[in-house]
Design goal:
Elements (H helix, E strand, L loop, with lengths): L1 E6 L3 H11 L4 E7 L3 H10 L4 E2 L2 H7 L4 E4 L8 H8 L4 E3 L7 H14 L3 E3 L7 H9 L5 E9 L11 H4 L2 H16 L3 E8 L11 E8 L4 E7 L7 E8 L2 E5 L3 E4 L3 E4 L4 H13 L10 H20 L3 E2 L4
Parallel strand pairs: 1-2, 1-4, 2-3, 4-5, 5-6, 7-10
Antiparallel strand pairs: 7-11, 8-9, 8-15, 9-10, 11-12, 12-13, 13-14
Length: about 325
């Protein structure tokens, strides 16, 4: 039985706990959160002990792996403390608010040769595999990414010093998908839209991306709406146009392929397989997620400085 500890007890942690508790070879050995009531509520649901801090969870011992599901501003110490225990680690995105924190964690994971994974579950969408097959032999020339949505109901989200902004916290999923289907990005130029509210993130951003392979890209983000309006990626290649969301692939505007809905289960199952030493399809180990994080931070920096940023500037 693989014993998993979870640091954080918010909505994403609860989702992972639900998935993990459904695996017959996994038990949730403990849940820690700085809000003891929230930790207790989630832990009691899964018959696990609750801890008021991750240090207490780690000190209790008996863990085979740890999930770190904390807000963007809380990354750093939890990961290093987990790694100091020589435990495999699953980290929810975004990796951090800055690049140095994430790079230090990546270096420590590599130094210890530990299994790792990051929660870019879109990589496990069945429709992404189908899109990749449809694009075989057809280089993408244009990519259009969108995240047009509402403000999530968490107190820290509008604070740039706690969330990192919408591109880093949300649209990083779309950026990761663009890297999969189009390739690496060499230059970004992001422009904030509207009049910023003092001390809050930009409510809208548009950006141009230049991919290393020659494709052009556009990204539009907004949290001005009352509901999720449009989230996904469109790509245009020779003779074909694909539009992907988290649930559907649309081919040439008329043929719809629904996803099988199992991506959030696969991302956890493959990490557990890796922890158990089995053959595992971990598509986004920490070092791979760092490349997407670097891209998101470049866009955030470009919007803040209102100038183009080359990716080798990071």
């Amino acid at each position: 039985m693989t014993r998993v500890g979870i640091i954080g007890a918010g909505n994403v942690a609860a989702r992972h706990a639900d998935v993990l508790s459904g695996f017959p070879d996994v038990t949730i050995a403990g849940i820690a959160d700085t809000d003891p009531h929230r930790a207790e509520a989630l832990a009691s649901k899964h018959g696990s002990p609750a801890y008021g801090g991750h240090a207490d969870l780690l000190s209790a011992g008996g863990l085979d792996a740890v999930y770190v599901c904390v807000p963007p501003f809380a990354h750093g110490n939890p990961e290093h403390d987990v790694l100091s225990c020589n435990l495999p680690i699953f980290v929810e995105k975004p990796l951090s608010l800055d690049l140095q924190t994430a790079e230090n964690i990546a270096s420590e994971i590599e130094r210890r040769s530990l299994p790792s994974a990051v929660g870019h579950h879109w990589r496990y969408l069945d429709i992404v595999r189908q899109a990749h097959d449809l694009l075989a032999g057809r280089p993408v020339h244009l990519a259009l990414g969108h995240w047009l949505d509402k403000v999530p109901p968490v107190a820290w989200w509008l604070d740039p010093g706690r969330s990192g902004g919408q591109i880093v916290e949300q649209a990083v999923h779309v950026l990761d998908l663009a890297r999969v289907l189009v390739g690496e990005v060499s230059m970004v130029h992001a422009v904030p839209g509207g009049t910023p509210v003092d001390g809050e993130i930009d409510r809208a951003t548009s950006a141009v991306l230049r991919f290393s392979g020659g494709a052009a890209g556009l990204l539009a983000t907004s949290c001005l709406l009352t509901r999720k309006h449009r989230v996904g990626l469109e790509v245009c290649a020779d003779g074909i146009a694909l539009e992907l969301s988290e649930t559907r692939l649309l081919v040439d505007g008329h043929r719809a392929i629904e996803d099988d809905g199992r991506a959030k289960t696969r991302v956890d199952r493959e990490f557990i397989n890796a922890v158990q030493g089995k053959a595992a399809d971990v598509r986004v180990p920490y070092g791979e997620a760092l490349r997407t994080h670097r891209l998101a931070l470049a866009l955030a920096r470009s919007a803040a400085e209102q100038r183009p940023v080359m990716l080798d500037d990071q």
